[in-house]
Amino acid sequence: MTAFDISRYHCTIMLDRLPDLIDPLEFAEKKRRIVGSMPLNTISRIQDMVLNGEAEAKVDLEFKKEGRRAIVSGWVEADLKLECQCCLGPLDWPVHSEVHLGVVSSIDEGNLLPETLEPLLLDETGVIDLADIVADELLLAIPAIPQHSHCASPKTETNSVDSRENPFAVLAQLKTIR
Ligand SMILES: [Zn+2]
For the chain, how far is it from start to end, CA to CA, in angstroms? Predict the structure, then answer.
């Protein structure tokens, strides 16, 4: 018996490329789970905030029904490189965000959700850009002013700056030699 029984491996849909537009209500009816990754530079609201756009956000989302409500649960994960607003150097910022969304079609309906669920508001098209869900989760985890911890406390950093030779002083010396 050499045949490889691939059907056993199809419980979870592993995708090289995640779908752009998804219909959360249909996915919930069909109890779909999507697992895959999405390059950061394809997420428009994120691409300008990170230095490593070539890196990927990993996504594992399960769609299901709880009573009449469609639920999206799972996680979004990415190793972001942000730009330190102090030294402009790269700042490693790993993000793991748990996703608990209740699908709603109005703000009123969103207000009725239990506190454990964030509203995922659908417009009349009924479809939503998966990148928007991922962007929402990542943006929540990105600080308003990204900073290295050692940059935030000036004590340790000023010493090394002071001890460095001022490049303009060197230029001034060269001028006087000529
Ligand atoms: Zn810094």
Answer: 86
